[in-house]
């Protein structure tokens, strides 16, 4: 199944059951032989808390049922939750009903409507850009540049297929064997599951960031004192970007 906007809408608005409100995605923790609670806390400590303050304005793209928005809502003066899924936005609206600083936005899968220019300190998205194709990421980065203050930061979790193999994506249309072959050569895994990762590499994200005047500060797959935490299950990356002054 292709990573189109419509397929993403169908998946997260209708097909996915949200059994644990997003915490069902515990495979990265298991892959790194960590408890899910420890792994999730490490993501919050390393990638979220350093960028948040009680005076910060933040945007989360595709919050789902709010597993990360819970932390953002506790730490930000203003928070925009933007998702193409109306059901996800409705769920977040109910979950965070006591947080008056949150603005909820249903978008078209590429834009940040209602977020003013140059007002945002921090943009966050996890487990969502991994399913977006390059044209969608490009559109979002243009919007992110628009809403960020100079020096504002962006942290995106995205797919990390081998850049040299992206042109072989046609193999996914060759049935089960073709899909397995492409997974093996682009993600170095041989099984029936690639997490529905899009045709994106870390180099694609670098190029799109440069096109949209966003500087790449880091691209990591693991972290912690001994690299004990990470997003290596499907070869993903977490990229930190900064709006150029």
SSE topology:
Blueprint: H1 5-15, H2 27-31, H3 36-48, E1 57-61, H4 69-75, E2 78-83, H5 86-95, E3 102-106, E4 120-125, H6 134-147, E5 148-158, H7 175-187, H8 202-211, E6 214-220, E7 222-223, E8 229-230, E9 237-243
Parallel strand pairs: 1-2, 1-4, 2-3, 4-5
Antiparallel strand pairs: 5-9, 6-9, 7-8
Characterise the protein shown here.
- This protein is α/β, with parallel strands linked by helices.
- It has two domains: 5-160 and 199-243, 3-Layer(aba) Sandwich (Rossmann fold); 163-196, no CATH class.
- Helices cover 34% and strands 21% of the residues.
- It has helices at residues 5-15, 27-31, 36-48, 69-75, 86-95, 134-147, 175-187, 202-211; strands at 57-61, 78-83, 102-106, 120-125, 148-158, 214-220, 222-223, 229-230, 237-243.
- A seven-stranded mixed β-sheet has the order 3-2-1-4-5-9-6, with helices on both faces.
- The protein is globular and about 50 Å long.
- It starts with a helix and ends with a strand.
- The mean pLDDT is 93.
Properties at a glance:
245 residues; alpha/beta; Rossmann fold; 2 domains; 7-stranded mixed sheet; two-stranded antiparallel ribbon; 8 helices; 9 strands; globular
